[in-house]
Amino acid sequence: MRTWLITGASSGIGRSVTTRLLEQGDRVAAFVRRPEIFNELSDTYPGKLWVAPVDVTDTRVLRDAVNRAFTDLGKIDVVFSNAGAGAFGAAEELDDSAIEQQLALNLVAPIQLIRAVLPHLRAQGGGRIIQMSTMGGQITSAGGSMYHASKWGIEGFTESVMGEVAPFGIGITLVEPGNVRTAFGAALTIAAPIEAYADTPVGHVRQYIEAAGGNLTGDALGDPARVAEAIIAVSVQSPAPERLVLGSDAHSAIRAALTARLSQLDAGRAVSESTDFPANT
């Protein structure tokens, strides 16, 4: 039996992982906004589900819940930082509150979660952190500027921390799924349109969202149950892989983006080298 701490455990991939873990006999500390959503699971798996009401964007509340979870449960083997949401709109269409909310939930909250759990993981001699990202942490699309900013930001933070904590036996993996059939798309925060963008890539994506009934992920390729299995499996892989790409759409999109980026890098090599101090002759 292992013990997991999961944020965003009430729906989507977080719910799938939580349910599968309980089915296989593990314990879960679930951080959710509404604890009552887990009443049925708590009854089905008595003593296996520890639930705390947590708004992960409130750092004080988050840190207190982390401390209580480690105190009550003892060792926590895996921390799955999964809470997140999306915002859509051109950069100037999104209002200030939407930008603040996106960065608070997708960037600041996981940073603070990792900071909060690290002292406990060091004290217990190691553990595993799984940070949910997305293929959008490696690629970009029109209308997703703030979402991508949050995901590229958490990728940079997490990759840096990997090297910091490896000496303590703490492994970290970034999970980069493509589109998964969850309610993520239906929960998008969509900015009010600016007419100037109507016939631009942003406007075209907006039309696609509207045609999908507001839910971009309703018919997605990704199976949340299979995604959950892959995440659970990677938690015992040693050494911890830096990244786990899930979904054929994610693999294709990320590969294309990295290939194009490498080509652009190589094309500019002469200019890059031209800015060095001249070699001593």
Question: How would you characterize the overall build of this protein?
Answer:
The protein is α/β, with parallel strands linked by helices. It has one domain (3-267): Rossmann fold, CATH 3.40.50. Helix content is 46%, strand content 15%. It has helices spanning 12-23, 39-44, 59-73, 96-123, 145-165, 201-211, 224-234, 248-267, 269-274, and strands at 3-7, 27-32, 49-53, 78-81, 87-88, 127-132, 170-177, 189-190, 243-246. It has a seven-stranded parallel beta sheet with strand order 3-2-1-4-6-7-9, with helices on both faces. Helix 4 packs parallel to helix 5 (145-165). The radius of gyration is 20 Å and the shape is globular. The model has no long low-confidence stretch (mean pLDDT 94).
* Rg, Å, rounded: 20 Å
Which parts are unreliable, with pLDDT below 50 for 5 consecutive residues or more? none
CATH architecture: 3-Layer(aba) Sandwich
Class computed from helices, strands and strand pairing:
alpha/beta
CATH topology description: Rossmann fold
H/E element order: EHEHEHEEHEHEEHHEHH
Note the overall shape: globular
DSSP strand tally: 9
Give the biggest sheet: 7 strands, parallel
In helices, the fraction of residues equals 40-55%
- Quote the beta fraction: 5-15%
Q: What is the name of the CATH class? A: Alpha Beta
N- to C-terminal separation? 66 Å
Number of domains: 1
Q: Tally the helices: what do you get? A: 9
Strand order of the largest sheet: 3-2-1-4-6-7-9
Q: What would the average pLDDT be, to the nearest integer?
A: 94
Looking at this structure, what is the CATH superfamily?
Answer: NAD(P)-binding Rossmann-like Domain
Pfam families: adh_short
Keywords: Oxidoreductase
Protein name: NAD(P)-dependent dehydrogenase (Short-subunit alcohol dehydrogenase family)
InterPro entries: NAD(P)-bd_dom_sf (IPR036291), SDR_fam (IPR002347), SDR_oxidoreductase (IPR051911)
